[in-house]
């Protein structure tokens, strides 16, 4: 399989965005910057040793997302996987110069259930230092691979705090086979670790149907649900003055990515509606103003009236 030519110069295709005044947007858009082969669905199929030999496609779709954001004068937070930083650095520096936030998605995308506290500490330090060295910013936020901070892995919050992060976005307040804390708050809150450590947490958008919470904030859910449903969820949150968070991956804009073996359900989740993601994102950006996680969280942090939720047993 051919390896894509790596970008070596500052990208020029993303239009410059006029400098925006501090916004009062309550919607945060987030992008988990990784390749299609980093997705958890392929964790048992593609060995990490094989990653360097695979075609890298994220740069192209990262540029598309940057163009969409510039066109709609919105900003986003990019949770960057350390493994991608060397070859994406010019693009990431450009995005940072446009007012977007560069945050951290760890280094090698291992589900936290599969690592020890020491391995997580090393992974976060390595990713943070790589972002600081190559992009020139210190990331404030962290998102675990596959939203893998759960009650079982809540010890990870202490490592995130210890590594100097000011907020986390790794807890999905739903039932799911790979992740989730179903009784966690659905708006920003202070997450308390089993040892009493405290960090700001911003969960993805969910829809409460009374008997169940439906995840609507990103990934396969965002690709599957009709755009009108998503827009109604965001409009309802706006009426309640509730901050929201959506997430997307560069590979979700790439219907032509190579297909690897995976279970039927997993493959369907990974590929459903990939060809429609960009248009759906475009329409959402037309209808709502989005900003970075830090800009949405900052006023809430100052007001300090956020709920507290303990992940201790
Ligand atoms: Zn990821």
Description:
- Helix 1 (58-71) links the parallel strand 1 (27-33) and strand 2.
- This protein has 313 residues and is α/β, with parallel strands linked by helices.
- It contains nine helices and twelve strands.
- Strands 1, 2, 3, 10 and 11 form a five-stranded parallel sheet that branches.
- The protein has one domain (27-310): Glycoside hydrolase/deacetylase (TIM Barrel).
- Helices cover 33% and strands 14% of the residues.
- Bound molecules: zinc ion.
For this structure, the quaternary state is single chain
Task: Summarize the main sheet.
Answer: 5 strands, parallel
The rounded distance between the terminal residues' Cα atoms is 48 Å
Mean residue pLDDT: 88
CATH-defined topology: TIM Barrel
Number of strands: 12
Number of domains: 1
Bound molecules: zinc ion
Rounded radius of gyration (Å): 18 Å
The share of residues in extended strands comes to: 5-15%
DSSP summary: helix tally: 9
Name the CATH superfamily assignment.
Answer: Glycoside hydrolase/deacetylase
Query: What's the helical proportion of residues?
Result: 25-40%
What does the overall shape look like?
globular
CATH class categorisation: Alpha Beta
